[in-house]
Amino acid sequence: FTIDYENESVQKIMSKYRREYSAEPVAFTPYFSKASGSSGFNAYAMWGYDIASFFIEAYKKYGKDMIKNTSGVTAEMVQSNMVFKPLTNWGGRVNMGLRTIMFTTDNCIKVKNL
Q1: How far is the C-alpha of 48 from the C-alpha of 80, rounded, in Å?
Q2: Residue 5 has what pLDDT?
Q3: CA distance 112 to 110
Q4: Among the residues of 42-109, which ranges form H helices?
Q5: DSSP 3-state of 109
Q6: Are 96 and 70 in contact (CB under 8 A)?
Q7: Which residues are registered as beta bridge partners of 44?
Q8: Which sign, positive or negative, has the C-alpha torsion 103, 105, 110, 112?
């Protein structure tokens, strides 16, 4: 996981999170090392944002049938990509969403959903 800091949506979410909680909303530092308890980073804020955004949108759109209809969910996520596929004929789903992370020559990170 990583965050595209140049993405306008990411910048808005991070600004709002900093205002509300006086903390950094990143799961990992920009150098991909795990955040420690004393680092001032929240280890789950962006993951929580993405998961909540996806499932709240799914519930608003499909109600109790949301698990069967996740392909129509268009929630804006900043760190994850959720594309659920049936696991078996009898139930269950698995997230097959992937992202590519590209490092540019000018030290930027570009993220693309697959």
Answers
A1: 10
A2: 77
A3: 7
A4: 45-62
A5: strand
A6: no
A7: none
A8: negative
Burial of 48 (0-12, 13-18, 19+ CB in 10 A): middle
Bridge partners of 86, per DSSP, are 93
Average pLDDT over residues 1-22: 80
Per-residue pLDDT tens digits for 44-72: 777 788 888 889 999 999 998 888 788 88
Of the candidates 55, 70, 76, 56, the one whose C-alpha atom is nearest the C-alpha of residue 12 is: 76
Q: Sign of torsion, CA 66 67 69 75?
A: positive
- Copy the structure tokens of residue 106: 């000018």
Written as six digits, the tokens of 54 are: 């996806």
CA–CA gap between residue 99 and residue 4 (Å, rounded): 11
Inter-CA distances, 44 with 16, 23, 47, 76, 93, Å: 16, 12, 5, 17, 22
Residue 62: CB partners within 8 Å, gap ≥ 6? 68, 69, 72
The three-class DSSP label of residue 84 is: strand
Q: What is the pLDDT of residue 61?
A: 92
